[in-house]
C-alpha cells in the first residue's frame, strides 16, 4: 500500500509538471518555438483544419487570417474560418496548394514567426523537403523566372577586362551569343609598372565570375572591426586566428582581410578572388582601380586590377593577378592576409601587404 501510495504521489507530481510545462509552452514560450504539422489528406486542396489545441491557445490572434511564408521568400495571405467548432485555412489556401503542387500525404510544418504569420516547410511523402518550395512564386513553380535572374546576373558579372587601365568597360555578351566583343580597345597611355606584358587576348578576357554560395555570402567580421574574413576563413578557430596573426607582422590599425585560397582563386584561367563587401565598403573606393601588392621583405611589386561593379562584384581578376599567384607559388588551402597599408586607404593606388601562411604537420608556417 505504501509503495502504491508512493507511485500515485509520483504520478501526481508528474501530472503537475506536465500541467506546468503546458502552461509555460503556450503562455510564456518564445512564439518562434511554437509549431504544428499537418498531413495532407481528404479535401486538402480547398481547406485544411488547424489543430484544435493550437487553435484554442491562439484564439483571437489568427481568427482574421494569417500570412504563410515559404522558403522561396514568397508570402500568401490565407483566410481563416470557424466551421463546426474548428478553425480552417480557407480563402487563399487553394491558391497556395495549387502553387506548391501539394499532393496527398505531403507533410507541412507551420512555425510561428509573429502575430498571425507562419513559416511553412513542405515535405513529400518520403519525408524529404520539396525542392520546388524554394523556387515557387504566386504563379506556381516558375523556373524561368529564376533562370532569367541568373542570366541577368551573369550579364552584369561577365566583363571584358583590359589591362590598359580603362576600368569602365561595358558588359560583354553572354556566353554563346553570336555577337562578338570588340577587341579594338586602344591603350589609355597609362605608364603603371608591369611585371610582365599581357597577352594580346587579354582585352577580350572574360571573367567567368563564380559567385557561388561558397563566396557570395562569405562576409564575416571579427569583434575587432579591422579584421574581415572570407567564408572559408571564418571556419578558422579562435586559436588558429591567434596563431596566424602571431606569425604575420601586421601594423596596428591597419585593416586586414583574411582568405583561405580555393581552386577558383589560384588557377591560371577564369580565376576570381572576391574581396569582402564589408572590407571594401569600409576601406576601399567604390570603383575599379589598380592596386599595388607587396610581400614582406621582398623588393618585387605587383600591380593588379581590383574590379568593382555595382556593389556586387569586388575582387582581383586579370593576368597580373595570375602572375602574382604564379610568382608567389600560391596553392589551394594557403591562407592570405591582405593588409591595407596606412595612408593608402581609398587612395588612387591602394597598397596591400600580402602575408602568406600554410599548414605543415598541423602547424602554421609563414611563407617568405
Automatic annotation (TrEMBL):
GO terms for cellular component: nucleus. SUPFAM superfamilies: DNA-binding pseudobarrel domain. It holds the Pfam family B3. One of its GO terms (molecular function) is DNA binding. Keywords: DNA-binding, Nucleus, Transcription, Transcription regulation. Residues 163-226 are annotated as: Disordered. The keyword DNA-binding applies. Residues 33-126, 258-360 form the TF-B3 domain. Coiled coil: none annotated. Transmembrane segments: none annotated. It is found in: Nucleus. PROSITE patterns: B3 (PS50863). Residues 213-223 have a biased composition (Acidic residues). Gene3D superfamilies: DNA-binding pseudobarrel domain. Residues 192-212 have a biased composition (Basic and acidic residues). PANTHER family: B3 DOMAIN-CONTAINING PROTEIN OS03G0622200, B3 DOMAIN-CONTAINING PROTEIN OS11G0197600-RELATED. This is TF-B3 domain-containing protein. The lineage of its organism: Eukaryota, Viridiplantae, Streptophyta, Embryophyta, Tracheophyta.
